[in-house]
Regulation of nuclear pre-mRNA domain-containing protein (Macaca fascicularis), 251 residues
Amino acid sequence: ATHSRACRPCPCGSFTTVNTRGPSSPCGSGSSKPNRKLTFLYLANDVIQNSKRKGPEFTKDFAPVIVEAFKHVSSETDESCKKHLGRVLSIWEERSVYENDVLEQLKQALYGDKKPRKRTYEQIKVDENENCSSLGSPSEPPQTLDLVRALQDLENAASGDAAVHQRIASLPVEVQEVSLLDKITDKESGERLSKMVEDACMLLADYNGRLAAEIDDRKQLTRMLADFLRCQKEALAEKEHKLEVRNLFLL
């Protein structure tokens, strides 16, 4: 509802605010930093997701320019940033936010001619099964380094970012209470409020994007840990069986 009120006077107005190359591309000015452009896409995602049922026109309005935005941001960022963009794209694909032709254009914009190196949970399971079958010793489990890295990454996850939590808790009441709009008396106060709202939107959009990435990471880690544990149990059972057979021959 908040996004609807903010954007309804001109659904495409937000595109101009986050322009990359002109008035029809949603990523900020050409001189914006890559991380800030990523945040603008998080903001676009937030609007699209929250208005999907109540304001589907926003999803349609973003469609013509979102591909160019993905292409522009991915061309100026590193692999880490592209990974975040890939997560946003995965969410849109899973929730059928856009038609397949738009999703394919987004994939092309993000990955180019290369196929996206996306490891689904099923692929992770297959990979670890293969590693498990060739496992020589339980002391050398498959994907150990990946698990350690994933656990370390979660130490800096959004849900544990106390500094951002404090910034959100300290947002001025003016950006939280719609009723305070009546107190705008002149252009200067209106512009001041507009700046506060824009800053708050950027902060929340970035945080929501990080939370979405964290949820994705935790789901993947949970699945990897489950497969890792199963693999270890299978290896242990195999060793115990060999030990039993050996003991039988020694009797």
In short: The radius of gyration is 24 Å. The CA atoms of residues 71 and 109 lie 5 Å apart. The chain has two domains: 2-111, 121-250. Residues 2-111 form a domain with the Serine Threonine Protein Phosphatase 5, Tetratricopeptide repeat fold (CATH 1.25.40.90).
